Amino acid sequence: MNLPLTSEVLSNPDVVVQLKLADWDLLVRQARRAGLLARLAETLVGLEGEADIPQAVRWHLKAEQVLSDRQKIAVRWEVGQIREALAGLNIPVILLKGAAYVMAELPASRGRMFSDVDIMVPFESINQAEAALMLAGWHAQSGDAYDERYYRQWMHEIPPMVHLKRGSVVDMHHAILPRTARYHPDPVKLRGEAVPVKGEPGLFVLQPVDMVLHAACHLFHDGELPHGLRDLSDLDLLLRYFGRDGNFWDMLPRRALELELARPLFYALRYARHFLKTPVPATVDADLVSAEPPLLKLMDAVFHRVLGPDHDSCRDLLMRPARLAAYVRAHWLRMPPLMLARHLLHKALISRREAPT
Question: Domain 5-354, what architecture?
Fold first, then answer.
């Protein structure tokens, strides 16, 4: 399959000087569907070809850029409220994903859009942390009794917590993969290497290699991939930024093997290079050769499709089977076979029958 135009421009922004108005129209539509329009705007700032961007396109880019900037301000404020709510517990609170990129002032926060704030606390402190957030106005939104048990017994997080007044969402994790998953990265090891957030006592982010590994396992254990290219772009920016430290590339595969995350890292590096031309040293490939999946050509056929923007220009006849394959694969990694069968049966029959009309 040809690369999406969004990928081509993000990996080589200078090509915009060759775009015609129809190309710009396609680029804006693809980038918006991928959640990457604000990042595209940030990428094009200061380019020699910036003056050639059509005025109609500039309006779209500027509007999305303004929205992204406002969301970052809101995320910083919500993080402050979370820190204040949990301050009395004397526990480490680790920010994950987008909130971590913002608070650590990483390039991956540029043009990033947000739907929630993800945090991780020790498993033994989950109940205390949930109670503290409830007192501050957040309340869990789980659904039926089955969903409640699904989250609290099997998953790596409790049900999302929504603020009663502001509508802001906190996803509180105690690990980065479900307890029933095939791989078990030790959250104690992740917390042990976490880095304090400057000027925010009690708040931490994962160390660089762990931040990349978490982004990789989050992307390649998600069965629906609504913003696959956006998450891959996050990885690309993290790898380019942290990769300036010579020790990073030596530590990354070793830490992946230690945390049982070599396979998702293999995928992350492979598809970041495919879609975004991410520079990865050949020595890292050699260190991860044991993580190469036996059905690599099949996985390429799946991920080359599902990681692109969810736009008509990126679909072919195999897109629907590819999305189904990604969904089944993610659930296969998440649960043992018998539990998975019961879960899918419940979701397909019982939950659907009990859903309000």
Answer: 2-Layer Sandwich (3.30)
